[in-house]
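Researcher: Let's run the pair from yesterday's discussion. Sequence first, then C-alpha cells, for each.
Model: Starting with the first of the pair.
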Amino acid sequence: MIITRTPFRMSFVGGGTDMEDFFRENGGAVISSTFDKYCYVTVRHLPPFFEYKTHLTYSKMEYVNAYDEIKHPAIRNAMKMLDMHAIRLTYESDLPAKSGLGTSSSFAVGMLNAFYALKGKYADKKKLADEAIFLERKLCKESGGWQDQIAAAYGGFNRINFREKGYEVRPIIISPERKQILNRNLLMFFTGFVRYSADVQRANSEMGAVKRQCLRETLVLVDDAEQILVNEAADMDEFGRLLDYTWQLKRKTGKAVSTTEIDELYEKGKRAGALGGKLLGAGGGGFLLFYVRPERQDAVKDALRNLLYVPFQFENSGTCVIHYTPEHYEESVAEEIK
C-alpha cells in the first residue's frame, strides 16, 4: 500500500503568465507557496477476488474492468500512461475541489507519485511536475497554466520562471521571521462558490491586446513583489498593496475572472481594513486571500463572518510518500485491465 500527501498552493503574483501560449513568446514568472492543506492518494493492488479489476474512490466510486470504462479523465490517462493494472485508488482532501487552490493538479502529482511508488520506482520532483503537466494539458486536454503542477511537486515558497524551453524553480530567500510576518498577515476565506478551473480558463482564453498588456505588466510586477519579500528594509505592507493592484489587473484579463458577488466580498474586506488581496486561482469562485495588519484582522473576519475562515501555515515539503508498504504483485494472477 502507498499513501502520498501533496500540498495545495496559493499564487501571489504572476498568475496567467504561466500559460504556454503567453510565456513561449513573452516569458513568465509566478511567486507562489504551498501551505498545510493537503490531498491524500492511497493506492494498492486489488486482490483478484472481485468481479471488477479496478476500484476508484474520489467524489464518486467506479468499479471497472477496462481503461475506457474509467470516467475520471486524469485517472484513466494516468493509468494508461504508466501501465497500471488492478488497483484500488482512494482520494481524500482537506479542502474542496474546484476552489482555486490547484486541487486537480495536486491530485495529479500525488497520483503519479503513488503509481511510481507502487511500481517500486522513484520519481523526482521535476519528473512528477513534467508528467503532471503532460497528463493534464496534453492527454486530458484541459486548459490552464503550468504553475500548479510545479508548485505541488516541489513545495515551498518559490519564484517559478517560465521560458520558451521550459521552467526553473527558484526558492524565495526570505528570513524565517519575515516569512512568518507575511503568513500572519494573510487571511483566507472560502467564498462557497466552486467552479472548474479549466472552464474559467477556456472562457478567458482569447489573448486580446488588453489581456496581453495586463499580463506583461503583471510579469514586471513579479520582480517588485520579490524585492519587497527579500529586502529586510522594505515595508511588508507594500506586498499587500501590490496584491490589490495585481488583482485589479487580473480582473481585466477575462469576463469569468470575477463576479458581482466576489467583487462585493472583496470590497467588504477592503473597507474593513485589508490592504489588498485576490481571488486565488483562475477566478470565478473558490478562496479569497487578504493581506491584513494584525490590528484590523478581527474587523475583517467580522465583515466576512458569513464566509468560512481557513487558517493556514506555509509548508516546504511538496508531494511525498508518507506510507510505503511494498506488495508482491504478479500480473498473471489478475487479468490485465486494457
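Model: Moving on to the second of the pair.
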Amino acid sequence: MSATSEALTASLVTCSFRGDLEVCRLLCETIDRFAPPNMVHWLYVPKADVALFADLASSRRKIATQESLLPWWFRKAPMPRPAWRARLRLPRRNVYITPFSLPVRGWIAQQIMKISAAANADTEIVVHVDSDNAFIRPLRMEHLASGERVRLYRHPEMVARASHRTWHAAAGRLLGLEASDFFGAEYIDQLVVWRRSVARGLTERIAQVAGTDWRVALARAPHFAEYILYGVFADRAVGLDQAGLFATEESLCLSRWTEGFESAREEDAFIAAIEPRHIACLVQSTIAMPIAARRALFERACAFAAAQDASLTPPA
C-alpha cells in the first residue's frame, strides 16, 4: 500500500430502523471484530428509535438521527406501527411530505440520506453497509483504495430487469446526460465504497441540472438508485481518472437476496461459495430467518474464511 492510500481515511455508514435492530446488532458485532479500531461507524436511525439503538454506541460507533441527514422541510407523514402497516398493506418504510414535491417514499428518502451522509462525512472514503450485512474477515484499507484511487464497483454486464433500466434512465435525466437505459455498467452491490469528493460533486451536478436544491430534485424523482446515480456520474460525467477512482467488477460481499435456506445443503452451498475476496456476507433482512440461525450461519462463514485464509498463507 502506498503512502497516499495510507493517508486516506475511511468510515462506515449504516441506515437502520427498529425493524432491523437484531440484524443490525449482529453487523455491529462483526464490525467491532473485523474493522480497524480507528474506522468510525456512523449508525443513522429514526429519532424515535435512538433509545433502542443506544447500547450500540461506543468510542468507534456514533448513533445519529436520520432526520439530521434531511432538510428541515422533510416531514414524516403520520403512520401506524409496523404491525398495523402490514395488516393494512401500507409501506414498510415511512412516507415524507415536503412543500416542493409529491409525497416521498421512504426508499427515496433513505437514498437521499445516504448521499447526504457521504457528502458530509468526516472521511474521504465512505463505506455503505446495510444492517443485514456481516463481516466475516478483516476489513483493510487495501479493500477500499489502491494508491490514491478509491474503489468503484462497476460490472459491465447489464442486469435484465426493468427497474435497472428505469434507474439508468433516471440517472441520465438527473445528470443532464444523453437519454439511455444503460450507461455501460451496473453499480449496485452490497458493501459499496464511495469517495466523499465525488459524492459532493454529484450533489452539485444534480443541483446545476435541475436549477434547484439537489434534495428537491431527488424528492421529485419517482425512481432512482443512488449507487447507479453515483456510478454514472463518476463514469460518464467526470471520468474515473479525474474522480480518483478505480473500477472493479469483483464484489466484496457474498449475498443472498430473496430466497431463504430450505435445507442444510443450501446453507452448505452458500458457505462453499465464499471466495477470498469476500470480506462480508449478506442475508437480506426480509428473508424469514431467526436471528440465532443467522448468527450460526455467519459464524460458519467466519470459520470458513479463516480456514481459507490460512490455506492461502505461504509457510514461514
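Researcher: Give me one sentence on the second I can quote.
Model: The longest strand covers residues 10-15.
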